[in-house]
Specification:
The complex is a heterodimer. Chain A is α/β, with parallel strands linked by helices. In chain A, 36% of the residues lie in helices and 27% in strands. In chain A, helix 7 links the parallel strand 7 (172-176) and strand 8 (202-207). Chain B has a single domain, classed as MetI-like fold. Chain B has a two-stranded antiparallel ribbon. The chains are: A alpha/beta, B mainly alpha.
């Protein structure tokens, strides 16, 4: 991995309700790539993702040790404001979750508006349009920006969620199995979009699907039982895995 | 048909002449329930947010039990407390102060222990808050975790998240307040003890003693049999109260069905 890392994770350990979920994770995520964390259910992928932008703070009874550094900012430093981290790191979730009481426009505009990232209504309009274009959604919704977001199809809703994250102009986007609730057509659109996104930010993708990992990733980390068993370029992981569990997983014998 | 519909428009109440008008009681009911509702909105939303989002977990269940118990106190107890503690307190620290500012012409002048539409409103707001708060609490707790996560991921502060959550459950809050309003409109014993039970033509003066429909019925019914038409007049008042509740419930149903 020659490029500068944007995320560095050092010996990260997370306990939730007394149970150790992450057992010492070390990772370096290079800038402007799609970095995939792949592994079976319950391996700690989602917890790892949620530790990067401190969404774990929402859960009760969480203990974190070790550190995560994003773009030079130590995420768990007591002096670091989690709000600052979350501006730097956007997130897309497993369930397409536009806010149901808001319109398409309001969903995208909410973050920038509340965080005062824009100075005028016109700037906000432009930002919303930019984000929707980047999420390949603008042409489908430009005539109905002010209808409730829940009127969109599942795939459109997920692209709206990507636009909503993009509108914050983050340096990193975390995606937690963003296509697991979508049909194959909607999935391939989102995968195309993920590949496009790395031109201007870094994508950390969580998936349990090795085929998706092979289609979109530059780098893959294979996670199993709270630890990273193997990290490498997508070719290394899929053509000559060093770890026997990784090999079993990518060849479909486990998972 | 002696009076017809005019009974709900007249302000006079003169049993000797068998002349009955219930407009002051209707207005008193609507004013007291509305003031109570506005205060209960603030009280119930803030106690719910406090319990669900702010208090440390150890104190949550204690606070919750206390608020729920407040709903179980018999209304006659509230009435006594309102009559001997709340009303005199409000008279001394609120009503007299406002009158000193020269606003007695607008709000009216408190008398005696301070029993008035205003005291009844404050008492009602305290009484209906536990009901509204328990519904709002359920609403806050039912917000899916992925909605909370997305609000936090958009770099909203804790308070900004709470404001968005309240908007997210606004229908639940509306329903909670409607339930509370229904109770405020119909509450009898406690209100009858603090409202002052006086028929006045100046029924918009909230610091003066007044009547609500239910307190009028409770107060006048014992001697109604002595007159020819008073029972009928009080039944009309009861019918009107019933229709008021019906309208509120229908509005809630219409709003609740809308998506």
């Amino acid at each position: 991995m020659s490029r500068d890392p944007i995320i560095i994770i050092n010996d990260l350990r997370v306990r939730i309700g007394g149970k150790e979920i992450l057992k010492g994770v070390n990772l370096k995520v290079p800038k402007n790539c799609v970095f995939t964390i792949m592994g079976p259910s319950g391996s700690g992928k989602s917890t790892l993702l949620r530790s990067i932008n401190r969404i774990l703070d929402l859960y009760d009874d969480v203990e974190v040790s070790g550190d995560v550094v994003v773009d030079g900012v130590s995420v768990y430093d007591p002096k670091t404001d989690p709000i600052y981290v979350r501006r730097l790191v956007g997130m897309v979730f497993q369930i397409p979750n536009p806010l149901p009481h808001l319109t398409i426009y309001e969903n995208v505009a909410l973050g920038p508006k509340i965080n005062r990232l824009v100075r005028s209504r016109r700037e906000l309009d432009e930002l919303v349009r930019w984000a929707l274009e980047k999420a390949y959604l603008w042409d489908e919704v430009k005539d109905r920006l002010h209808v409730p977001a829940v009127k969109l199809s599942g795939g459109q809703q997920q692209r709206l969620c990507i636009a909503r994250a993009l509108a914050m102009r983050p340096k990193v986007i975390l995606m937690d199995e963003p296509t697991s609730n979508l049909d194959p057509v909607a999935t391939s659109k989102i995968e195309e979009l993920i590949i496009e996104l790395k031109n201007y930010l870094t994508v950390v993708l969580v998936t349990h699907n090795p085929f998706q990992a092979s289609r979109v990733s530059d780098y893959v980390a294979f996670m199993y039982d709270g630890t990273i068993l193997e990290v490498g370029s997508v070719d290394e992981i899929f053509t000559k895995p060093k770890n026997k569990y990784t090999e079993m997983y990518v060849t479909g014998r486990m998972g | 048909m002696r009076d017809g519909f005019s009974i709900v428009l007249k302000t006079s109440w003169n049993p000797v002449k068998e002349d009955y008008g219930i407009l002051p009681a209707i207005v008193g009911t609507i004013i007291s329930a509305s003031i109570a509702l506005a205060l209960a909105l603030v009280l119930s939303v803030s106690t719910s947010v406090l319990i669900v989002e702010v208090l440390p977990r150890r104190l949550r269940s204690l606070a919750e039990v206390l608020v729920d118990l407040a709903a179980a106190i018999p209304s006659v107890i509230y009435g006594l407390w309102g009559l001997y503690i709340l009303s005199p307190f409000l008279k001394e620290f609120v009503m007299d102060r406002v009158v000193e500012l020269g606003l007695g012409g607008i709000f009216g002048y408190p008398r005696g222990l301070g029993t008035s539409i205003f005291s009844a409103s404050i008492l009602l707001s305290i009484m209906i808050t536990p009901f509204a708060a328990s519904i709002i609490r359920v609403g806050l707790r039912s917000i899916p975790i992925h909605i909370k996560e997305v609000l936090a991921s958009l770099a909203l502060t804790k308070w900004e998240v709470i404001v968005m959550e309240l908007k997210y459950i606004r229908r639940t809050i509306f329903t909670a307040l409607a339930v509370a309003y229904g109770r405020a409109v119909g509450e009898t014993a406690a209100v009858a003890m603090v409202v002052g039970n006086t028929l006045t033509t100046d029924f918009f003066k909230v610091f003066s003693p007044g009547y609500t429909i239910s307190s009028l019925i409770a107060d006048q019914y014992p001697n109604a049999e002595a007159y020819t038409y008073m029972v009928s007049a009080l039944f009309t008042a009861g019918l009107f109260l019933f229709m008021l509740s019906l309208v509120i419930n229908v509005l809630v149903m219409i709003y609740g069905e809308k998506r």
